[in-house]
Design a protein that fits this description.
Elements (H helix, E strand, L loop, with lengths): L4 H13 L2 H7 L4 H15 L4 E3 L4 E3 L1 H29 L2 E8 L8 H11 L2 E8 L2 H9 L5 E5 L10 E16 L10 E2 L9 E3 L6 H13 L6 E4 L3 H9 L5 E4 L10 E6 L5 E9 L5 H13 L1
Parallel strand pairs: 3-4, 3-5, 7-11, 8-9
Antiparallel strand pairs: 1-2, 5-12, 6-10, 6-11, 6-12
Helix pairs in contact: 1-2, 1-3, 1-4
Length: about 300
């Protein structure tokens, strides 16, 4: 059975006008080829669609059943060019984005707000994951992009691209009831040298882990690692419980927890870089729209 959109459009026009002559005028054609097209459609469907007399035209039960479906198909067909254009330009589709917990307190919310404003028809699939998990997911094609702690391992630079987004200093997160902290905006690590350190396991963010320990080493200290945790909110929660201190990116101070004091450090500390990472060979228009917008936000 061969039915084309032209036949359906002619059928709908006749059904709306209930007059072959007026329908022909709307379609900018003469009546005979219109009648022939309707007859061909009826033959293809094996059923009469119109009851015709010299004075009137009416839909048969088959015609009544076909009309709403034909109208729906024509609307859908009319939307196809815009659908294809939006998909090709990245205005619609799906973006799978992972992020480290620290990004949730800094770059992620404004990125999402801006992207949603410009691309409201894109579905964003979000998942929180550590840097090591994201890099594995990227190499396996399970996500489009990730917000990770930089730098990338050298072995992955051949297949992954990255763009630094945010560089921020490390600050101290400590239990609020420590007398040595009261009234001070800036403290030295030596002030809290007897407190256990709460830190990320090295396997999930080697550069971040090493940067924190380097701060203590530069201060002439060897910290006692009291607890390890993979989520920033867990680390801050352990600080709140008095389990120790932590060095965290400055933006984590946006995570307010009772019993936690955030203090700047007088010690020299490295900057922690958060960046976007994606595969070289990912040609997704949605991904590249997101990357373009993220570069404008820097």
């Amino acid at each position: 059975m061969n039915i084309d959109l032209r036949q359906l459009r002619y059928f709908v026009t006749v059904a709306e006008e209930m007059h072959f002559g007026r329908a022909a005028v709307r379609l900018h054609m003469t009546q005979p080829p219109l009648s022939q097209t309707i007859q061909a459609l009826e033959a293809a469907l094996g059923s009469q669609l119109f009851c015709r007399t010299k004075r009137s035209v009416a839909l048969t039960p088959a015609g009544l059943a076909l009309l709403p479906e034909a109208q729906r198909l024509l609307v859908q067909a009319g939307a196809l060019p815009d659908l294809v254009r939006r998909a090709a330009s990245g205005e619609s589709g799906r973006l799978s984005l992972a992020f480290v917990s620290t990004a949730d307190y800094s770059v992620l919310p404004p990125f999402l707000r801006e992207f949603r404003t410009h691309y409201p028809h894109v579905q964003i699939d979000l998942r929180e994951a550590t840097t090591d998990v994201q890099l594995e997911d990227l190499t396996q094609g399970r996500i489009d992009a990730g917000l990770v702690i930089l730098p990338l391992p050298d072995k992955l630079k051949a297949e992954l691209d990255f763009a630094p987004i945010l560089a921020e200093p490390l600050i101290l997160a400590a239990p609020q009831n420590i007398n040595a902290l009261r009234g001070k905006k800036t403290v030295a690590l030596t002030t809290l040298s007897d407190m256990p350190l709460i830190i990320f396991p090295r396997r999930i963010a080697p550069a971040f882990h090493d940067a924190i320990l380097a701060c203590f080493r530069d201060a002439g200290l060897t910290p006692e690692i009291g607890q390890e945790a993979i989520q920033m909110q867990t680390i801050v929660g352990l600080v709140s419980a008095g389990m120790g201190i932590a060095l965290v990116p400055q933006s984590v101070s946006n995570l307010k927890r009772p019993g936690v004091a955030y203090k700047s450090l007088s010690d020299r500390t490295p900057l922690v870089e958060t960046g976007l990472v994606w595969r070289h060979d990912n040609a997704s228009p949605v991904l590249h729209a997101f990357l373009k917008l993220s570069r404008k936000k820097k």
